[in-house]
């Protein structure tokens, strides 16, 4: 599993990168990074997996803990190029409203 601070992810982000937010639905509804796709860690723990595609996956949560767990689950399931976003949504909030939906 790779790890990348949110600020660095935001600087190098491209449209072909997939961002999975593994927080729960209520957290996601409150605030999330623009373009993030909700897929809660609870679903991963139940054995459900997101649809695979060819894009590199970046995983975000509130601060980086749940996303690290999610990356390990995804990699064990065969997903490659999974990167944990250190600092998570909290870091995105610190970067400013233009990063948030």
Keywords:
globular, 5 strands, five-stranded parallel sheet, 38% helix, single chain, Oxidized Rhodanese, domain 1, 101 residues, alpha/beta
What can you see in these coordinates?
The protein has helices at residues 6-12, 25-30, 41-45, 65-76, 88-95, and strands at 2-5, 18-21, 37-38, 57-60, 82-86. The chain has 101 residues and is of the alpha/beta class. The protein has one domain (2-99): 3-Layer(aba) Sandwich (Oxidized Rhodanese, domain 1). The protein is globular, with a radius of gyration of 12 Å. The mean pLDDT is 95.
Q: What Rg is obtained from the alpha carbons, in whole angstroms?
A: 12 Å
What is the CATH superfamily? Answer: Rhodanese-like domain
CATH class: Alpha Beta
CATH T-level fold name: Oxidized Rhodanese, domain 1
Shape: globular
């Amino acid at each position: 599993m790779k790890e990348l601070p949110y600020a660095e992810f935001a600087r190098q982000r491209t449209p072909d990168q997939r961002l999975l937010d593994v927080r729960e639905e209520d957290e996601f509804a409150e605030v999330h990074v623009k373009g993030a796709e909700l897929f809660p860690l609870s679903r991963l723990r139940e054995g459900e997996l997101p649809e695979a595609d060819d894009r590199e996956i970046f995983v975000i949560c509130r601060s980086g803990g749940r996303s690290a767990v999610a990356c390990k689950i995804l990699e064990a399931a065969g997903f490659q190029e999974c990167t944990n976003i250190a600092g998570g949504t909290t870091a995105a909030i610190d970067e400013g409203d233009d990063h948030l939906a």
